Amino acid sequence: MEVRVRAPGKIILAGEHAVVHGSTAVAASVGLYTYVSLRFPTPSDNDDSLNLQLKDMALEFSWPVDRIKEALPEFGSSLSPTPTSCSIKSMKSIAALVEEQNIPEAKVELAAGVSAFLWLYSCIQGFKPVTVVVNSELPLGSGLGSSAAFCVALSAALLAFSDSVSLDMSQQGWSVFGESELELVNKWAFEGEKIIHGKPSGLDNTVSTYGNIIKFKSGALTRLKSNMTLKMLITNTKVGRNTKALVAGVSERTLRHPDAMSLVFNAVDSISKELSAIIQSPAPDDLSITEKEEKMEELMEMNQGLLQCMGVSHASIETVLRTTLKYKLASKLTGAGGGGCVLTLLPTLLSETVVNKVIAELESCGFQCLTAAIGGKGVEVCFGGSS
Amino acid sequence: MEVRVRAPGKIILAGEHAVVHGSTAVAASVGLYTYVSLRFPTPSDNDDSLNLQLKDMALEFSWPVDRIKEALPEFGSSLSPTPTSCSIKSMKSIAALVEEQNIPEAKVELAAGVSAFLWLYSCIQGFKPVTVVVNSELPLGSGLGSSAAFCVALSAALLAFSDSVSLDMSQQGWSVFGESELELVNKWAFEGEKIIHGKPSGLDNTVSTYGNIIKFKSGALTRLKSNMTLKMLITNTKVGRNTKALVAGVSERTLRHPDAMSLVFNAVDSISKELSAIIQSPAPDDLSITEKEEKMEELMEMNQGLLQCMGVSHASIETVLRTTLKYKLASKLTGAGGGGCVLTLLPTLLSETVVNKVIAELESCGFQCLTAAIGGKGVEVCFGGSS
């Protein structure tokens, strides 16, 4: 018995940083996935363990199911039908289970991910022996929501075989969850994100769960109905960032220049709203797809300027901007800035030759380039064989 | 009898483009000069011509004084004590005089400069034979106010020997003009600028005449009393720009995104005001020079971001930004953008070694680098030998 789930990453189209200061932001799912497959052993397998394989890191962890039962006696008999937060007591027991696996101390995030895995597994599946295989197209820690995609895919895969969810297992290929199932997946994923990040905004798991494009302001999320397909080049500068320090830097600059910065945040709010309006405007309306793309490019360029005004750019981001500008393509950083990823809109009519040229030039600078559609479906499930 | 005059160029410290939309801007003189020397022939020289030597272009023009008298009969007998605009009739006669000198048709700006020269000479000096030598440290047409510096230096040199101005010719070295003389120089230079540019703002000639730092908003100029010496690296990208097209581009973007752009212009206004306040704050106050420089750097970075938001950056500007960012130096474009010049603040405590490294790296990209103090004196005069 096997289930395979995929959950997309996210990008921020407009409004990062300014959203912390009350502006509207717009996020979208990106067609790069984290895959989680779940396989229950048959009695003849004679396997009584919980196995976690992280393919991208070539890592494998294994616990005898009885060991988990012993460490977390509060679970197993009564599964949690509604998502709950991990108590400090459970967290300590989980930490002990993680420690037994000899994860290098430097890999704090990996340990946090494994902890989230153990929590979601215990809550949703109890202590059934199972093998979980994870692989991902999302670069880790680069602001594309890789941890949320992991939590969403994992929650969905675990829920697929739980009593909380009823799915049509006879369907072929990837299929979406129902509205109530999605809500459950999203809530569980959020609990996982809390274990990994402490105080996540909930945006990443929501985008990964529901897909499409989401507007958010002051903690409230609104799902937009997008009427256009957008293709983006995502350039991972591979420059590590300290998100907390970048957010604090913007706040400090705001204290030093309150008038100018408040105007900048309001300008971002206006840009996010314009962007949302374009995305939602009816498909065949007075604006052609090219006109819409040009408007979006202009708004991206404007937002990038405002992000530079906030002081969150970086030499590596400037290099990407300068390179794509040569090809008359609009780019902006996405997420925290200070490195991380840069978005470049690839217009529908842009030739593949130009795209390849830009990618070659960016890769020659040592960057990693990915192309993906944005605003596509959220988490999807596939039963049976591989897909 | 000889007089030598030097007039500085200008840079815009903050507010370019936004000033067109009502924001405050701040300009400063830059310690790069256009030199004009005037030598009257002695009777034994037997020279009855007006000679203009443009040293930087290795060009020389010469007219018999009688030829000018014939072409411009309205001048000579009564010199104009107050600056007046060139009439269409005079402009036509001057055009004929310029045409006789076989200036290549492509050099429209050169012809305009020579026209301004003939106008100022005829108005201020009548038809005395004289040799005028011009050389300049300012790159032409790169937004550093080279034409205004030419008009200011020329007007000042011509006025130095006129009845309108009384100067102490016994002074050694460079000396400044009196307040009323400066006013006259500035007005004449503005008339010259009108011949070259059509509708100049008057900012460039005012900065070149008075020096120091000037705040301007909605056409009104305020001279600031600066209390700090600032050193700038000026990088000439050598990318030619179309100022009119850039200004029009910002206006078009403003029509497309009125809300966002109006907030951006207001943010620039706030930045210009903050900058003016720092510049004017008393010398030994609670802020050390380093703290002031850091504040200015932050404001320059913010202004640059807002200029990028307006869409007036350019790949060459990005290259300069990226390069100086590596050395933790703040830069912004100055003037119209789309190429042209980029300013980089050189903090007082920055080592010469680092400055040389940055310059070497920028020059290896094909850019021209100049370093200069900003906010220094305006037009100055020197009698007798060279200085």
UniProtKB/TrEMBL annotation, chains A, B:
Primary subcellular site in the record, as a coarse category: cytoplasm
Domain GHMP kinase C-terminal: from-to ranges: 294-357
GO molecular function per UniProt: ATP binding; metal ion binding; mevalonate kinase activity
Subcellular location: Cytoplasm
Domain GHMP kinase N-terminal: start-end pairs: 125-211
Cellular component terms (Gene Ontology): cytosol
Reactions catalysed: (R)-mevalonate + ATP = (R)-5-phosphomevalonate + ADP + H(+)
EC nos: 2.7.1.36
Enzyme class: transferase
One Pfam family recorded for the sequence: GHMP_kinases_N
Pathway: Isoprenoid biosynthesis; isopentenyl diphosphate biosynthesis via mevalonate pathway; isopentenyl diphosphate from (R)-mevalonate: step 1/3
UniProt GO BP: isopentenyl diphosphate biosynthetic process, mevalonate pathway; sterol biosynthetic process
Protein name per its UniProtKB record: Mevalonate kinase
Organism: Carpinus fangiana
